[in-house]
Model the fold of this input.
Amino acid sequence: MGKIKVLHLITHLGIGGAQDNTLLTVQGHARDKYEVHLAAGEDYTEWQERGRACADEFFVIPELYRSANPPADIRTINYLTDFMRQHEYQIVHTHSAKAGTLGRLAARRANVPLVIHTFHSFGWQVACNANVSPWRRYAGELKKQVYMFIERYAASVSDALITVSELNRQEALDIRLAPAEKFTTIYSGIDLNRFNVQVDRRQQCLDMGLDPARPVVGTIGRLSVQKAPLDFVAAAKLVLARKPELQFIMIGDGPLADQVHAAIGDEERIKVFGYRSDIPNIMGILDLFVLTSHWEGLGRALTEAMLSGVPVVATNVDGVPELVTHGETGLLSPPGDPARFAQQILWQLNHPAEATAMSQAARARVAPTFGSDKMVRQIEQLYDRLLAEKEYAEKVYQPVLSH
Done:
């Protein structure tokens, strides 16, 4: 019996939580059972070489971009349909909104036996959070309805839907995205071994131009609307007015970079470092990790901070409360409220014993639950169950058809 051919399809391989999740899944699949292919669009390519290294075969899909372009999207569906037929995949597993929609439609046209999609976040959240004026709020609501219509249709042609947190699954059920039996929650895993490192805090601080004798508060994430980096800057300035000895760092880059630098101005105690690959070392110098996101599937950098034993303050959005229980494993704050964030940051820093106890509880929660090995095994168990159900249904249906 030959190996099961699996295609993982994602919109792009820029740096991000969905991309890391996908690459760890591709890398972790049991190669004695699966032949694993990976395909991505042409937008962001920072992790493309990593993709080539972890897949048995890697493909770039022409004209698969994040932005909507109906003529190009139709061409992409046709291309993917022919591509999937040619490779005779038994499983197509899509990730992210654009690849998820086009890929699932193509997979159904190509008669792929098993079509699965992972929601790392929900596409309509972009429409809901990027609006300020009444007109933009109205336009955003219309976009949300369009996104939800598209997602419902794509869900209808899917055999299974994965959410990365139970709260995400519940949200999908609340809006009737698909029947409950299609959903499975599989927590987004991280490479636990990568964070099993000893960090020379003093040297790491010096290498980054920081003062090792002063506390460091940091955030890690794309400088985009989702991550609300301007809220982080605003909260940092409020905290610095009370604790001038602190240092704030931001790891990441993105479309709001210019606005972030403008908001920081000449405040030298807030530094932006762009993308970095040494995240375990960054975690080793932090006294507090802050997540100001407006929405999160789960919060990958947050999970990594908790695994690293760093106290956390995070927004009370989407799947985050499954990681952070307020007052037990960290502190939660409402999104879009820098003043409240500043209060929570100050509380953590002013109560080191309580902060340490919460960080230890957080690490104990994350370590046994959020490993990438566990995530991949659960995904493979889902594959096995669905393939067995398909095979059983075909055996039952064929004799009836023959009469």
The chain has a mean pLDDT of 91.
